[in-house]
Design a protein that fits this description.
three-stranded antiparallel beta sheet; 12 helices; globular; Aspartate Aminotransferase, domain 1; alpha/beta; about 400 residues; 2 domains
């Protein structure tokens, strides 16, 4: 068992670990007890006090501060959205792009990132896809040959969902700064699992949902917009987006100036229950230490890779520590293996390259040994008839 984390106390926060072998945090994390308690408190307040909205709104700002601290950002650089896809679409429509401008992306990256930019083709914006192999990590050198005078944006995932690559965002950020290019990052698979420092990474805009590494239920996302990028303007407008919202709730056609901070991209009501829970989940992450979470999932990955080597099972994604995080795709046919894992109370995901195993802060070395043992058992059973046939 890993000595990096106080694993026993962490596992108490995740009762699902008593019911199944949960290796699917890249799909969604199970609900932590502290998150459930926060949601229950919110519901009780709504039930018993008819919704103390001023209290709830103060908690929204507390959550904004918590997210900013996690990302090494300013609270005014954080907006709340529904999910990653909404954040990426906000970015795509906010960047001032003209006909003939180009966006560079990685071929095979998450489709919802691609569609946010491909939707701009109707305005004459060009999207060019750069190829990288599943075991490769994108760096500045990956993109530099494709940059020309019309390149305005590079958009990619920090950690990929389909092979687990951890791309070198920092080097790409430096390249974008040199070339005057916006860097838009999908941090869905990295936030809460790896240190994500927007200053060090050189990110212009970052989008992420909160139902994976940030441990809250679906329906809440975060958007980071670097301060000073005032040319990034919202496609939608509401009172909450305005610098001077009318106190009498009568629209002022002559005053449509948006806020200067990231709040200009917010509109409508907040997801108050999830925001109430978000501060609780970030507190758990903060107490555990995101650097220690990173070290923990990498250690589990080391153990898994070692076990796969003994079995002759190929890893689809990168093997080097610097190029991976908590996602490991095994070259095992989904049609033959997914039901087997399900029948043995193991939660994994089918992926384009095979079976995806993804670790969370609550997983242990024993979890790794258990799944390796299950793979060994099935491979052994599959080999027995062939051996018997050769004897005959």
């Amino acid at each position: 068992m890993s000595a990096i984390l106080e694993i026993d106390s962490i596992r108490q926060e995740f009762p699902v670990t008593k019911r199944m072998l949960y290796l699917d945090s890249a799909h969604q994390t199970p609900m932590a007890t502290c998150v459930r308690q926060a949601l229950s408190e919110f519901l009780a307040e709504g039930n018993e006090m008819a919704g103390p909205k001023p209290v709830w709104m103060r908690r929204v700002e507390r959550a904004r501060e918590d997210v900013a601290a996690l990302l090494n950002a300013l609270p005014g650089e954080i907006a709340f959205t529904k999910n990653t896809s909404e954040g990426l679409n906000i970015a795509a429509n906010a960047v001032p792009l003209a006909e003939g401008d180009t966006v560079l992306m990685l071929e095979g990256d998450h489709p919802n990132n691609a569609y946010a930019w491909l939707n701009l083709k109707r305005k004459g914006v060009q999207v060019r896809f750069v190829k990288v192999a599943d075991d490769e990590v994108a760096t500045a050198e990956t993109f530099e040959p494709f940059i020309d005078a019309r390149t305005r944006v590079i958009s990619l995932s920090h950690v990929t969902f389909h092979a687990g690559q951890r791309h070198d965002i920092a080097s790409i950020g430096r390249l974008c700064a040199q070339k005057g290019i916006y860097l838009v990052v999908d941090a869905m698979q990295s936030i809460g699992v790896l240190p994500v420092d927007v200053r060090k990474l050189g990110v212009s805009v970052l989008a992420a949902g909160c139902h994976k590494g940030l441990l809250v239920p679906q329906g809440l996302g975060i958007l980071y917009v670097k301060a000073g990028l005032d040319e990034l303007q919202p496609a939608y407008l509401a009172m909450s987006s305005l610098a001077n919202p009318p106190e009498d709730y009568i629209a002022r056609p002559d005053d449509l100036a948006p806020r200067k901070d990231a709040g200009r991209f917010e509109f409508g009501n907040y997801n108050l229950p999830d925001l109430h829970a978000l501060s609780s989940s970030i507190e758990l992450i903060r107490k555990t230490g995101v650097e220690r979470i990173e070290a923990h999932v990498l250690e589990l990955g080391d153990r898994l890779i070692g076990g796969l080597e003994t079995l002759g099972v190929r890893l689809v994604g990168p093997r080097a520590r610097a190029g991976r995080a908590h996602i490991y795709v095994l070259d095992l046919p989904v049609a033959e293996w997914l039901d087997y894992f399900t029948q043995n109370q193991v939660r994994v995901s089918p992926e384009r390259g095979g079976i995806r195993i993804s670790f969370g802060l609550f997983n242990t070395s024993e979890d790794v040994d258990q799944v390796v043992s299950l793979i060994r058992q099935r491979l052994s059973r599959a080999a027995q008839p062939a051996a018997a046939s050769r004897v005959d």
